[in-house]
Design brief:
The structure is a homodimer of 392-residue chains. The first copy, chain A, has 392 residues and is α/β, with parallel strands linked by helices. The first copy, chain A, folds into 2 domains: 173 residues, Rossmann fold; 187 residues, Dehydroquinate synthase-like - alpha domain (Dehydroquinate synthase-like, alpha domain). Chain A is 48% helix and 12% strand. Chain A is built from 14 helices and 9 strands. In chain A, strands 2-9-6-5-3-4 form a 6-stranded parallel beta sheet. A two-stranded antiparallel sheet of chain A has the order 7-8. Chain A is globular, with a radius of gyration of 21 Å. The model of chain A has no long low-confidence stretch (mean pLDDT 95). At the A-B interface, β1, β2, α7 and α8 of A face β1, β2, α7 and α8 of B.
Chain lengths: 392, 392
């Protein structure tokens, strides 16, 4: 067994209707809580009123701030400056991946006196000392898995823009409270994009050369749950709590495995495209899942037919099609998996890049910067180009 | 999906030869370390000298104390009193489950002014506030999984004896450093008993009615690894690092799942027998694994043939025999699993209770106090009796 490291995981409380426990959970850490939410969807569903009602029992004091869009260093700095003197005992984020990342970053910056920019990988030169306020993550989408990870992605748009990580072992949330009922109001298109994000995390981590037996077990479990629930969550089962629970579970595990096994060419593209275009991360991943799978399977079948990569694709072909795994049918089973991913991409209406204004002349600069990362096989520049061009 | 909770897990560093990283790992927490080891086996193998050599680089100051046998409240109190004024930055245990439990308890009591007895479940009345010194767990056996859990078992022998838990969410080790090379010197008989302990944790957690998809995935992964490595670790592969790594992995996962899914009748017996007799915990579990499996499978086949319990035993029959799982052959596959467990029990020379002086007259008091706990099926008192009597 090769050396591997698994980061600390949060205490996970997974329960439909679990939001009713938010008072007890907050109380473990103190009385003064800073809550970060995103936009107005929580208010629209009445869930925000419910949370306020629950927290208003007893002696809890809470402050509330809103994040619009993706978290920027400016948002983190402004929020930290505003609340640094308030003796915040615990930070609580309720929202999608952006809101969770924002809360994670704020909880880590309430203890510091400088801008978060100083600690961002590839931007600042400082090393964070790990001191932070306790942080509770409550996801309302099933996608990024940020509720399980130690990093926050911060973004600055514009000419000197970036999309980079702010991370430390200690930034893993103290508690992840996953209440699948909170995701029921998530529209089908957002559910699909977030679900494809979770899918790509699970898939790329499972196939990563840095995978280990523990990430394999968790990724496979998450993929099994996602297989049964992603399409229903976007179609016939949008208000089915069990379906939503399956997706919430898959997304949580996707966070654990991506942080510990690494990701492949899909996320190689995503970090480059995210810097150039304002396309939701889940859409980028969703658009490329099929073409990247096809290209990886073809490259593995040609260059490493006896390797573990093709075997893993074949095992997923068996899992997703319900057929038994047979080593002699590896190539066929792997192709079956590719076909299922294409079918889902259509079924879920995942958009192509052209719909976001990406055009032929953008290809070169995107392909040039994209890396295979922890892909199951090293792709050539030409293969990487083909993965992208097919999806414009 | 039913509600479930997964406790925080430690940061895991899993690496053959990983003990060489102990200096870096300790340094993350400070300069003054209290090391707890057990007996002389670490010295005998030269590993202790190596650890001292590694720690003696730079400015680390360390204190060292020895635990003989199982940890008692007296050991914890005496050690805490001795080192409370030493400004210990981090506690480090290197040893079997007893040594890890001792270090876990000491790290939690260095912050308190009273006896640990006050916090022991069912003995004291106080609730621990969770403050502790950082704790690093380095196992040298593959068995209890204490390196993954939040509880320490403390034992007092005698008329008013007990074997009870001292636990808190925060007591999960900060870091589990698993170096399978450290287990190579473990004698076959101890390896077998510890391995049967890990086996029973994985098995009972997998079968527990409180199991959830995440504990199932981890338990199944651990059982797959244990299937390939337990017998070799005690026979032909005692000095094979990959074999030892497989067992170390299985034991670590066994700690995660037992803490989150619960255990069945085997551990119902173990906690009762542990209070009456001085029999190693792994031997108690190992002795009962086969008879408890036989009784559970028979009860499930008779009373819940369509339930998930029999299906899970059948899946293990398929896993352990290498046969494909077929729903139509559930009963046969479950029996296959029972047969394999009996065969292993013989092969590993797991002792019977009679060899430790247990006799007919002891049966009543043991059976009377034993509970099914999170067993896959509620057993009758007569069935519980038969599980035990067969193994005297």
């Amino acid at each position: 067994m090769k050396k591997f490291i698994i980061a600390r995981t949060p205490k996970l409380v997974f329960a439909a209707g679990g939001i009713t426990e938010v008072h007890n959970i907050v109380s473990q850490f103190g009385k003064t809580v800073l809550i970060i939410t995103g936009g107005s969807s929580l208010e629209a569903t009445g869930k925000w009123d419910e949370i306020v009602r629950i927290l208003n029992h007893g002696d809890i004091v809470f402050y509330h701030t809103l994040l619009q869009g993706e978290p920027t260093p400016e948002f983190v700095d402004a929020t930290t400056d505003r609340f640094r003197e308030k003796d915040i005992d615990v930070v609580l984020s309720i929202g999608g991946g952006s809101v969770l990342d924002a809360g994670k970053a704020v909880s880590a910056m309430l203890t510091q006196e400088v801008s978060v920019t100083e600690f961002i990988e590839g931007i600042g030169a400082k090393i964070h000392d790990g001191r932070k306020r306790p942080f509770i993550a409550i996801p309302t989408t099933s996608g990024t898995g940020s509720e399980a990870t130690k990093n926050a992605v911060l973004k600055r748009m514009g000419a000197n823009g970036f999309k980079k990580s702010f991370r430390h072992d200690n930034f893993v949330p103290d508690i992840a409270l996953i209440d699948p009922e909170l995701t029921i109001s998530c529209p089908a298109q957002v559910t699909a994009a977030c679900g494809m994000d979770a899918f790509s995390h699970l898939l790329e981590s499972y196939l990563s050369p840095r995978a280990n037996p523990m990430t394999d077990a968790l990724a496979y479990s998450g993929l099994g749950m996602l297989k049964d629930n992603l399409v229903p969550a976007c179609t016939s089962g949008t208000d089915n709590v069990d379906v939503r629970a399956g997706m919430a579970y898959a997304a949580y595990l996707s966070g654990i495995v991506l942080a510990n096994a690494g990701l492949g060419v899909i996320h190689g593209f995503a970090s480059v495209i995210g810097g150039f275009f304002d396309i939701p991360h889940g859409v980028v991943c969703g658009a490329l899942l099929c073409s990247a799978t096809k290209k990886n399977v073809a490259a593995l079948a040609e260059r490493e037919p006896e390797g573990v990569g093709l075997e893993k694709y074949a095992r997923l072909g068996a899992l997703f099609s319900g057929k038994p795994y047979r080593a002699a049918e590896k190539a066929v089973l792997a192709d079956t998996f590719t076909e299922i991913v294409y079918a889902w991409t259509d079924l879920l209406g995942i958009k192509r890049f052209g719909e976001y204004g990406v055009e032929g002349p953008d290809v070169d600069k995107i392909v040039e910067k994209t890396r295979s990362r922890d892909n199951p096989i090293e792709l050539t520049k030409q293969e990487i180009r083909e993965v992208f061009v097919e999806r414009i």
